[in-house]
Amino acid sequence: MDSGTSIFKGAALPTALAGVVALLAGLVLDGAKGAAGAAVGTAVVVVFFSISAYVVNWASKISPQTLMLAGIASYVVKVLGMMILISSFRDVTLWNTVIFGWTVVALAVVWIVAEFRITLQTRRPYIDEPTTDRERGVRAGRGS
Fold first, then answer.
1. For residue 80, what are the CA distances in angstroms to 20, 32, 59, 75?
2. CA triplet 75, 101, 86: central angle to 5 degrees?
3. What sections of the protein cross the membrane (predicted)?
4. 22-71 pLDDT, tens per residue?
């Protein structure tokens, strides 16, 4: 399993578990609307962060420069997408928007902390080093 996959699994599972806790808290605080807000917030965080993790993992296999560009680009797209999404959900009445917002914030923090924790535990660089001469040549741009 490459480092990107282990980081993804190490962050997605705690976030999903925290999402279940958020859903139960939303249910207790505001009934079905609270639970719906927490469920939508959980889905938003898991989808946004999963796409970002996939893009960064893909870029890590190309080059360190591509990894950096993908990391910055995915961050900018994620922030802009969240701003657009949250502003478009402002007048929604199907779920509790306050619980939705707090769920997004809390689960984003959980994802980031879990990702950081798994990165420290693996003590491996995020970029998977080439294992064969052919990979080294392709990654350095000297081959096909």
1. 26, 29, 21, 9
2. 60
3. 7-29, 35-55, 67-86, 92-114
4. 999 999 999 999 999 999 999 999 999 988 888 888 888 888 788 889 88
Q: Where are the domains of the chain?
A: 3-127
Which residues lie closer than 8 Å to 122 by C-beta, 6 or more apart? 3, 6, 7
The answer to whether 85 touches 24, Cβ cutoff 8 Å, is no
Asked if 139 contacts 62 with a C-beta cutoff of 8 angstroms, the reply is: yes
Q: What CA–CA distance (Å, rounded) separates 112 from 92?
A: 28
Cβ atoms 53, 4 nearer than 8 A: yes
User: What pLDDT digit, counting tens, does each position of 69-91 carry?
Assistant: 988 998 899 889 888 988 888 78
